[in-house]
Design goal:
Strand content: 25-35%
Radius of gyration: 28 Å
CATH topology of the largest domain: Leucine-rich Repeat Variant
Largest sheet: 5 strands, antiparallel
Strand order of the largest sheet: 13-12-15-10-17
Number of domains: 3
Number of strands: 17
Helix content: 25-40%
């Protein structure tokens, strides 16, 4: 992983973590004291060495103009938003390419795939160097090597799995030769990685859905494979059978305790409109408890001290990179159309009204009262509104009010904190 501002290339050890991954610091592959060293890209090359592109610039970062307060220097903002420098600290004409080579490493077994026939290209799918295995896959697809299809199918069906089988699967998909029997064999493979890729390769149509549901992937013992299967469900059209499956999956304990699976099921509930599944269906009362990330949390009633709610003030602490939910019950005596919802949030905001996503602001921004407005219809009886506010850093605030067509506060409604 390149870190140009730190002038190094880090090694991240990617380890399994339930239905996802986590990165563990593995030290540095390369680090420099050269102030102009700015590695922006690194990858394995055809010779097995790590090839590095060095942008070669003293300044390689976002360009907030330094001030006396921030950096002890009062700079001037120049063209394109970049601050001006007096000593030409931005090089625009040079760059460097490095090869990081293991001196005792073996020579590459593949010098070139240019003008090779399909048997040699198919064999290269097994290369331990991802440069050559991906190049072989690209050549099969780009050159439409349909004559390679029998060998590719044999490799997928062999039962051996491995990276070669995965490349063969995607090669078949790329040349339009991935038949149902081969696809089914991949879905039932003993190799979890091949099963995951077979799921990803399924089209979300009448061809893909029967294959998906005739295999046990949504109950896969490998949680990462199960996660890929749940993500594939997001692509399928909303039909009663899908809604039933999502509702059943939501009751599986591991789907609540694993963060990755739980987040995907939240999306499934929202996308497929499954009652009781997902944040759009949140309905709570003070004192209700819920488990989030292995911790037990308690819902409570909150009254804002001003015309907006300050989460940090309410919780008496600063909370970065977290989300909060405000749930309000609105009683109305009659159906009332054209009700204006005026919204403000710091930072990201989303509103679900009676289970429907009606508003979203997905970028960090300061609180500006009545910054955004939308219209809803209040139904007779109880309406449920869920206001989600996600904080990036520092201020964590939200405000919302209901107005009539003239912009005046709405009358003849009752707000409740209990259902």
């Amino acid at each position: 992983m390149t870190e140009p501002t730190a002038k190094l290339i880090g090694i991240m050890d990617i380890q399994r973590d339930g239905a996802g991954y986590k990165a563990v610091d593995g030290g540095n592959l390369l680090a420099s004291t050269d102030e102009w060293m700015s590695p922006i890209f690194a990858d394995i090359g055809p010779d097995g060495a790590v090839w590095v592109i060095d942008f070669y610039s003293f300044i390689i970062q976002h360009n907030p103009t330094p001030s006396l307060q921030s950096a002890g220097v009062q700079a001037t903002t120049g063209r394109g938003g970049a601050y001006q420098t007096e000593n030409n600290l931005r090089d625009q004409s040079h760059g460097r390419i490095y090869r990081v080579v293991w001196k005792d490493g073996p020579r590459s077994a593949i010098p070139s795939l240019a003008k090779k026939k399909s048997p040699e290209v198919v064999a290269a799918l097994e290369s331990g160097n991802p440069f050559w295995s991906l190049t072989a896959q690209r050549l099969i697809v780009d050159n439409k090597m349909v004559d390679a299809a029998p060998a590719l199918k044999k490799r997928v069906r062999s039962g051996a799995g491995g990276k070669g089988a995965i490349h063969a699967l995607w090669s078949l998909e790329g040349i339009g030769e991935l038949d149902q029997d081969t696809h089914r064999a991949a879905l039932l493979s003993k190799d979890a990685a091949l099963r995951r890729n077979a799921i990803r390769a399924l089209p979300a149509n009448d061809h893909g859905q029967p294959l998906f549901f005739s295999s046990p992937v949504i109950q896969d013992p490998d949680l990462l494979t199960r996660q890929v299967a749940l993500v594939k469900l997001l692509e399928f059209p909303t039909i009663p059978e899908i809604q039933t499956v999502v509702a059943q999956l939501s009751r599986v304990p591991i789907h609540s305790s694993d963060t990755f699976l739980n987040n995907t099921l939240t999306l499934l509930g929202r996308i497929h409109k499954v009652s009781g599944v997902g944040e759009n269906e949140v309905q709570v009362a003070a004192g209700d408890k819920v488990k989030v990330g292995g911790k037990e949390l308690t819902w409570r009633n909150v009254t804002a001290a001003t015309n907006y709610l300050d989460f940090n003030e309410t919780l008496k602490s600063i909370n970065d990179h977290v989300a909060g939910y405000l749930v309000t019950y609105i009683e109305c005596d009659a159906d009332t159309p054209d009700v204006v919802i005026a919204v403000a949030s710091n930072d990201q905001g989303r509103i679900y009204f009676n289970g429907v996503d009606i508003y979203a602001f997905t970028e960090p921004h300061p609180l500006m009262l009545d910054a955004d407005k939308g219209k809803v219809t209040l139904k007779k009886g109880t309406n449920v509104m869920v206001f989600k506010i996600t904080n990036e850093q520092k201020a964590w605030q939200g405000a919302m009010r209901l107005l009539d067509r003239s912009g005046a506060p709405l009358k003849n409604i009752r707000l409740k904190l209990q259902p």
